[in-house]
Amino acid sequence: MCGIVGYIGRREAAPLIVEGLKKLEYRGYDSFGVATVGKTLELDKHRGRISGNTKSALRLKGKIGIGHTRWATHGIPNDANAHPHLDCSGTIAVVHNGIIENYSELKRQLTARGHTFRSETDTEVVVHLIEEEYGTKKDLLAAVQTVVPKLVGSYALLVIAAKEERMIVARNASPLVIGIGDGENFAASDMTPILEYTERAMFLEDGDIATINASEVKIFNKGKQVSRPLELIDWSLEDVKKGGFTHYMLKEIYEQPQAFYNTIRSVNSDTLPGFVLNPTSITVVACGSSFHAGLIFKYLLEESCRIPVRLEFASEFKYYPPPIEGLVIGITQSGETADTLTALKQAKAHNCRTLAITNILGSSVSRLADTTIFMRAGPEISVAATKSFIAQLAVLMQLVNNISGRMCSDMLLHAHQAIEEILLIDLTDAVAACTGVKDIFYIGRGPFYAVALEGALKMKEISYIHAEGYAAGELKHGPFALLSPETPVIALCTPGETYGVMISNIKEVKARGAPVIAVGSEGDSELPDIVDIFIPIPHTSPSVQVLTSLVVLQLLAYYTAVALGRDVDKPRNLAKSVTVE
Ligand code: F6R
After folding, report:
1. Distance 334 CA to ligand 1 centre (A)
2. Who's near 428: CB < 8 A, 6+ residues apart?
3. 69 Cβ below 6 A of ligand 1
4. Looking at 358, 380, 412, which one is the last position of a domain?
5. 288: Cβ below 6 Å to ligand 1?
6. Which of 87, 395, 446, 511 is 20 to 30 Å apart from 12, CA to CA?
7. Mean pLDDT of the residues in the chain
8. Cα-based angle 25, 568, 364 (whole degrees, multiple of 5)
9. Considering its fold, how many domains does the chain have in total?
């Protein structure tokens, strides 16, 4: 949810931390703060975004520093609730990503012992607890080691203190990576702020506490020193730059041909275990866009193999678990979505075998699941999922082939070309029809119903226009009451078994006065005559048309949001990875 970054080495920490926070803002952006240790411990923190507001943070002195960009959970976004948080003496600073569930009780006890709290956050208890232990033990590592077992919840913590030439970090159920540099070391929520300096990284495990100085990292778990593998991260710095695009989202939409190409070729039945290749039944757990990817998978697999696929919102699964058996697949691009992690834990508790599909090496889901398929989408910075979604579909479409024992079709192997072609589409008329309306409906059938859901999610998320996806046949069972000339309906109407019934649905909509924007196959002789705006996509296989129509809807949402002057990459109230239930 929040982004954290820490540095220790030969450079001034503040500029490096500030730049790192800018790259982490996709994890949360309602306030930010930096603390450094030089001659003393210095702090600067503010409500709002880091861009354009960095003057005072850049003045902080010291070669050790920590920073935080926040997505508020406990306490409104204001200066006091921004991290880092300090102890009573102002000599220890902590940043935290996660939630301390037992903070109320700890706060009550600490207040009774005379500590003064300056914020409403859960995090502040951590720094006061460390203050007490540091006061008696005089050893920052030992203090953190004593405090961490008292915390219930999830945390990635970075701790620094005046006169200490080290940073102490701890992880439980929140991501934390240590970047190994040359005479300098880093710690962060993910690799994006570190890539500029090193490609060598160690991913901490739950329960790990590490002490980091400029030349050495020592990791402990349950008091014993442990080692974690050094991984080489093959993401490049260019991947996390905008590269001439106005927004990350547009850049990432344009990276989709490559993401699909790389991913579909990387999934190989030789590397998959038997329980994935020969399932008797499958349950998919996921949230948001990943749920929509799961829905497309359900349609494709059930059609090709007749293996039942159950799809569950991960957030419901924990509290209302259905009877489950067989294979459980968790789809999560970030690998950190709390609901999806919890659902997979639940599945394991029911003795199910688990498969994770994620974009992030070393993510929590990849440690949790029995086996993991990694997508090859590269880093996705924009909050709205685009290329990670296409890469999820590459994995899932290949999985359908692997399970059904079919070869990947030539059409699918060349789908990147169709995706590339569609990027050039002119959506001027459709954007004009969407800009200025309050509601938009999206309709489709089968896998295109999932495309409709995803298109509507993209639209509402970044343009703030109310948008709903419906299975096309459902619109007349209630939502018809909302149709008017001010409610465009976007219909996905491609060749296939449901083409005729989609045409009827479109006519029904038109008869109620709503304008229809249709996405259909190029060369369609009927559709262009009955709709207001026709958007042609290449005439290929249904699976490839799922991909290309998705890209059309992503672009439509993007250009509409830009026309409305929205903050496309950082839509209000959202964060990229949702690490709370
Ligand atoms: C929408 C979007 C979200 C995520 C959802 C799950 O554009 O990005 O709906 O799909 O929060 O995230 P992951 O896939 O990281 O579990």
Report:
1. 8
2. none
3. no
4. 412
5. yes
6. 87
7. 95
8. 45
9. 3
Cβ neighbourhood burial of 351 (10 Å; 0-12, 13-18, 19+): exposed
Instruction: Supply the residue whose CA is at minimum distance from atom 8 of ligand 1.
Output: 385
Domain-located, residue 418: no
Q: Which of 374, 391, 412 is the last residue of a domain?
A: 412
Asked whether residue 39 falls in the same domain as residue 130, the answer is: yes
351 in the same domain as 282: yes
Could you list the beta-strand ranges (E) of 199-290.
200-203, 208-212, 217-221, 224-226, 231-232, 282-286
Spatial distance between the Cα atoms of 540 and 565, rounded to a whole number of angstroms:
35
The reply to whether 417 falls in a domain is no
Q: What is the pTM of this model?
A: 0.86
Q: Which atom of ligand 1 is nearest to the CA of 386?
A: 7
- 230 in a structural domain: yes
What is the atom index within ligand 1 of the atom nearest the CA of 287?
6
168 & 267 share domain: no
263, 353: one domain? yes
**Omega prior to 229 cis, within 30 of 0:** no
Residues 523 and 386 in one domain: no
Is residue 73 a contact partner of residue 99, using CB atoms and an 8 Å limit? Answer: yes
CA distance 194 to 179: 6
Residue 419 lies in a domain: no
CA torsion sign for 5, 10, 11, 13 is positive
What is the residue with the minimal CA distance to atom 9 of ligand 1?
288
- At 285, is the secondary structure helix, strand, or coil? strand
Encoded amino acid at 534, one letter: F
| Tokens 């603390």, residue located | 35
Q: Which domain holds residue 477?
A: 425-581
Residue with tokens 């196959």: 521
Q: What is the pLDDT of residues 508-517, one digit of tens each?
A: 999 999 999 9
Same domain, residue pair 176 and 299: no
Residue 576 CA, ligand 1 centroid: distance in Å: 7
Asked if 397 and 459 sit in the same domain, the reply is: no
Distance CA 214, CA 218 (A): 12
Q: Do residue 258 and residue 210 come from a single domain?
A: no
* Tokens read off for 358: 């994620």
User: Cβ of 200: how many Cβ atoms within 10 Å?
Assistant: 15
Amino acid at 440: I
CA angle, 53 then 29 then 99, to 5°: 130
Per the CB < 8 A criterion, the answer to whether 452 and 490 are in contact is yes
> Which residue from 170, 97, 111 is spatially nearest to 140, judged by alpha carbons?
170
Q: Where are the beta strands (DSSP E) in 38-137?
A: 41-47, 64-70, 85-86, 92-100
What are the tens digits of pLDDT across the range 240-292? 888 889 999 999 999 999 999 999 999 988 999 999 999 999 999 999 999 99
Residues in the chain: 581
Cβ neighbours around 149 below 10 Å, total: 9
Task: Give the β-pairing of 516-521 and 489-492.
Answer: parallel
Summarize pLDDT for 158-181 with one digit per residue, the tens: 999 999 999 999 999 888 999 999
Q: Does 332 contact ligand 1 (Cβ within 6 A)?
A: yes
